[in-house]
Amino acid sequence: MPLIYSFVARGTVVLADYTAYTGNFSTVAIQCLEKVPANNNKFTFTCDKHTFNYTVDSGYTFLSVADEDFGRQIPFAFLERVQTEWKEKLADKARTATAHSLDKTFGPRLKFHMEYCQAHPEELTKVASVQKKVADVQNIMMKNIENVLERGEKIELLVDKTDNLRFQADKFHKTGKQLRSKMWWQNMRMKIVVVIAVLVLILVIFLLGCFAPANHCIK
User: Fold this and answer.
1) 75 in Cβ contact with 51 (< 8 Å)
2) Cβ(91)–Cβ(71) below 8 Å
3) DSSP secondary structure of the chain
4) pTM of the full structure
5) Cβ distance 10 to 87 under 8 Å?
6) pLDDT above 80 for 57
7) pLDDT per residue as tens digits for the range 158-209
8) pLDDT tens digit string along 93-129?
9) DSSP string, 127-152
10) Cα–Cα separations (whole angstroms), residue 63 to 24, 32, 75, 83, 94
11) CA pair distance 67, 50, nearest whole angstrom
12) What would the pLDDT profile of 153-172 be if each residue is shown by its tens digit?
């Protein structure tokens, strides 16, 4: 008996379930349900050589109990089929439904999907394998996009730093040019002052020499 028991619950309230076997599967499943996290997730509990496979989505919990030897691919493929039909037909109506009030409505659909998955394991295994490969490719693509975006941010930061350095270099060049021009004019003024001072000194010496009592520069 590969697939044994299944239910759909809202929180801890089981809205619909189905099993063709007798046992305490429902009791254990409900006890595990109280430990189920509220976020969207997939996980499995193992108990007495059976797997209790859960999928949580949009406030609803989907369960399949299977033999441990049956693996996890087919139970989760079954849950995906159940989840898809539930969201299309009953997700809105079930918001206010009471415990087991949808057994007659959705119990037969759980039975149908359970029998279909047990009758077509190879098909579901191939589909699950393809879906896994698609999911892996999507994850790789998302990681590559994140890396490109991160690299783009680093390049943008590097460009900003380069522009800033270029601006600082231009500013330094202009400041240096202005400083060289200022120093040149100061040097030139100093030379002019020195030349004038030398000329004045020469003129003073000349005049002193000409007007001295012993010399007659002007006749």
Assistant:
1) yes
2) no
3) --EEEEEEEETTEEEEEEESS-SSHHHHHHHHHTT--SSSEEEEEEETTEEEEEEEETTEEEEEEEEGGG-SHHHHHHHHHHHHHHHHHTTTGGGGPPTTTTHHHHHHHHHHHHHHHHH-HHHHHHHHHHHHHHHHHHHHHHHHHHHHHHHHHHHHHHHHHHHHHHHHHHHHHHHHHHHHHHHHHHHHHHHHHHHHHHHHHHHHHHHHHHSSTT--S--
4) 0.56
5) no
6) yes
7) 767 777 777 777 777 777 778 778 888 888 888 888 888 888 888 888 777 7
8) 899 999 999 999 999 999 999 999 988 887 765 545 5
9) HHHHHHHHHHHHHHHHHHHHHHHHHH
10) 15, 10, 9, 10, 16
11) 5
12) 666 677 677 777 777 777 77
- Tokens (6 digits) for 188: 């030139």
In the numeric block, the tokens 């409505």 are attached to: 105
